Amino acid sequence: MKTMKTYFLFFCFVIIIIGGCKRRANPIESETDPPINTQDPGGNTSAFSITSPINGASVSGTVTIAVSSGNVSGIIMVYFYVDGSIVGIDYSAPYSYPFEANDYSNGTHILSVKGYDGSGGVIATDSKTVTISGSNSDNIDPVISITAPLNNATVTGDVSIMVSASDNIGIEKVEFYINNVNEGIDYYSPYMYQWDATGKSNGIYYLKAIAYDAAGNTASAIISVIVTNQYVFTFTNQVHTPVDVTVNGSTKTMAAGSSVSFTFTTNPGSFTYAAQTSGKTNTGQIIGEVLYWGGEITTSNYSSVRLYYSSNYFFLRINNTAGSTSFNGPLVVNAGLQAEKTENIALPTGSTYNIGYFPAFSNTTIQLYSNPGAWYVYWTQGINFTFPGTDDQQITLSNTSLQMMKANGGTQSAADASMKYLMPRESIHSPIISQEAEAPKEHEVPVQYELRHKARHNYHP
Description:
The protein has one helix at residues 2-19, and strands at residues 49-52, 58-59, 62-68, 77-82, 85-90, 95-100, 107-116, 122-132, 143-148, 153-155, 158-166, 171-178, 181-186, 191-196, 203-213, 218-227, 231-237, 243-247, 250-254, 259-264, 270-280, 286-298, 304-307, 313-320, 330-333, 341-344, 351-359, 365-369, 375-380, 394-398, 405-406, 435-438. By secondary structure, it is mainly β. The protein has 4 domains: 2-132, Immunoglobulins (Immunoglobulin-like), CATH 2.60.40.10; 143-227, Immunoglobulins (Immunoglobulin-like), CATH 2.60.40; 231-310 and 434-438; 313-406, Sandwich (Immunoglobulin-like), CATH 2.60.40. Strands 2-8-7-4-5 form a 5-stranded mixed beta sheet, with no helix packed on it. Strands 10-16-15-12-13 form a 5-stranded mixed beta sheet, with no helix packed on it. Strands 26-25-28-29-31 form a 5-stranded antiparallel beta sheet, with no helix packed on it. A hairpin with a 5-residue loop joins strand 7 (107-116) and strand 8. The chain is rod-shaped, with a radius of gyration of 46 Å. 25% of the residues are buried. The model is unreliable at 1-45 and 401-461 (pLDDT under 50).
């Protein structure tokens, strides 16, 4: 490196001596001094000066920076600087450089020069301050800040990112980045971007905004936020009576066909729940079977569950429109079977009543007494009614077309001719209750998975 420098300097001396030639450089790419001795000398610089423009001058357009070496000898080249950055070199006296003031913003700027000798040392320096006015260029960066959310704020769900941006000419656009990924652009003030952090993992995220002006000048601002999304799990009641759901000691009741949600601070990964329902009288007495659901839910697989029962059960409704006959006696379902259930109920005339849940068999029978030991009506599966064989099935029975029978004997009444007749189903001896879970939903994803558990059942009166 040293040898090449010596050759270069020697070559410059030869050119100066034999040709008196001169090369004035255009602005150069380097923004630093050459790798040579750059220590300014003490003294011997008063005669080396910028003769034009004068200190404090107001300039515009093309301005020639003229340098006089005065009585300083040994200068072989002069470096020219604007605001500390090299813009050109002149290798022969008189030293000068055409400075384009319009390339710089309006305001105060410093012009400086350095004279180098043949050994690569700085032997003379000078500088002047000028004021540029009337410049057509825009070299002023915008000013930008993120006003919301605050730095290190905790956020969840939808987050409004608000930006304040200004410029001496005007803002062209503001870009929004999340963890260095461009998420959006806003071209109009007030500048903002709505970030949906609902599905994001909890943790630290970096929000950055970059403002651009028409000249391509930019400025950026960055903050960090902490995402702590709450996790919401939803239960939906698909059965015919209210369901009580308990999660982490909190119990909520959802009416038939409605939903309830439980909120966790973060996604728990899994949790256990318990739910139950039954038919009830208007005084709160349980009628029929109590249906239970429960178990562990893995939240990575599901975000909601709908509760229902399989076709091994049915829900009973009775329409009592038999004139003046009121029933105030036993209701017997599945008489003679292991699942036989007897309930004392009162059904005034003229209304339809929701009764309760019972196991469904191909030979299920239902008997309803007007009074203990008095008249009764009865229905038989496959003769007077037919189970649909579907989840959450229900039947509505009416005594309007059936003759009542004495409890102590007599002939069986004829079936209503309008009743449908189907082949009896095979008897079922182990009814189960199931639950079906939906896949996690983001926007509207169709059901993709089905989760079923065997549930408990209650055959005791």
